[in-house]
Amino acid sequence: MKKRFSKIHLFLFAGLLVAGQSCTKFDDKMYSAYTEDTFPKTPEQFIALTGPVYTSARGYFDNYFSLQTAGSDEVIIPTRGGDWFDGGKWRDMHYHTWSASHEVVQNNWDWGFNAIGTCNRVLSILEQAPESTTKAQTISEIKAMRAWYYFMMMDAYGNIPLVTSFDTGTELPATTARAEVYKFIVKDLEDNLANLSEEKTEATYGRPTKWFAHTLLAKLYLNAQVYSGTANWNKVVEHSNAVINSGKYALENDFLTQFKPDNGASNPEPIFSIPYDASRATGNTLFNRVLHYAHRQTFELSINPWNGWSAQPAYFDLFENADNRKKQWLYGQQYNSTGQPLNYNGLNVILDPYNYKLIPGSDFDIGGADDGGRLAGARCIKYYPDKNQISNNAGNDVVVFRLADVLLMKAEAVLRGATAASVSQAVDAANQVRKRAFPVNPEKHFTASTLTLDAIYKERALEFTFELTRRTDMIRFGRWEDAQLFKPANAGETYKRLFPIPARARANNNKLDQNPGY
């Protein structure tokens, strides 16, 4: 049964009614209406005021999803007889030939900094409210959300403007070095930890808790060497242990349950999720990207999906048949909802994970005239298609942080040199994830000799497909320049571990320096 929206969630999404989708141009009346007598006093009133911060988060599964995923080795979005050409933007992502004017690069920048601006504007209102414990917690929650937005922008673009107040003046912000942005994010999270809720309830679902902050800090420290030049592996263990030892979270028995259309606050594993709803909180369109047109009949959908995003063969081959996580892939003969073989335009729908054959004269078009090229590639349905979708929108909430990630971060930190935990503890942490995938195959479980960094790198691929970690993982492991399906290795282009500062942003602000190499 589809979950029912709670009062808290309706407050979170109420911001859209006033702020609009961009969350940058607010109705001045919304803010000028607050006086000493009308400032929010109850938790519900504070949440209503902060709604735009959370509605902004839904761009995570659109702009940021494309930026983090489309250039990685987990997916390819080939041109299929003209379908998905889209001005060549997906080709550029696959070949790592994006420019400062690339649509995905620009759209993600706009989304991220609009969200940061929304946080700063809401904070400027909250700070004027009378002192209370609810005010203190709400301010810390918005600062934690701002830290998360800044983390994504810093991870993607490196050297970025760092703005922490809402200023309607004309002074434009200059570029701040990536290492300084990293230090700011860490400090802001650590300074606000004490005020964040420790509860895992319907009321805190979709909002940052203390465990959200610990998880984000673990992730920041895991990549500290990339971001600042200085590793801090023990801090990864410290913050991972805080989540693990909290007793608030447990691995889901069935890996895929936490991604289903009826997922929500009752799932034991997610630490932070973004609530979506097919009518009231739209933006989860992933099923359209991955499914073949004919899958409408398989999942009883009201529209034809778009048939685009599919697995690269080498990535698909990482999944063994005995691995429960392979169930997230559609491949081979496809069937309709009654079990009959699926047919499209007279062609039997058999998805071939390997049949990426370029048409003559093209370096990215695999053809579509006979619909054959449209059958290439395994399709990921980790977020199981929602038969109650409305138009292009599904109701699956999107998981951002979950316990499996924390466990594997701890294990990796130990292998990289952390002394705050032992190798046996690292093996135990990694095996909690591994044993869920191979419950009846003990020979597949890790030992002190088989748990290597290469094994962790592979395990993260198996566990976190389409969870927006792959690009960051590839960079941390030095694999971003590896050859992919059509892309040759580009070892001399390590500067592409950062995306360029968008041309449009620099045209509007001449204080922004371009990243080296672009």
TrEMBL record:
Residues 179-206 form a coiled coil. The keyword Lipoprotein does not apply. Keywords: Cell outer membrane, Coiled coil, Membrane, Signal. Residues 268-518 form the RagB/SusD domain. Residues 1-24 form the signal peptide. InterPro entries: SusD-like_N, SusD_RagB_dom, TPR-like_helical_dom_sf. Residues 91-222 form the SusD-like N-terminal domain. Its main location: membrane. It is found in: Cell outer membrane. The keyword Transmembrane helix does not apply. Belongs to the SusD family. This is RagB/SusD family nutrient uptake outer membrane protein.
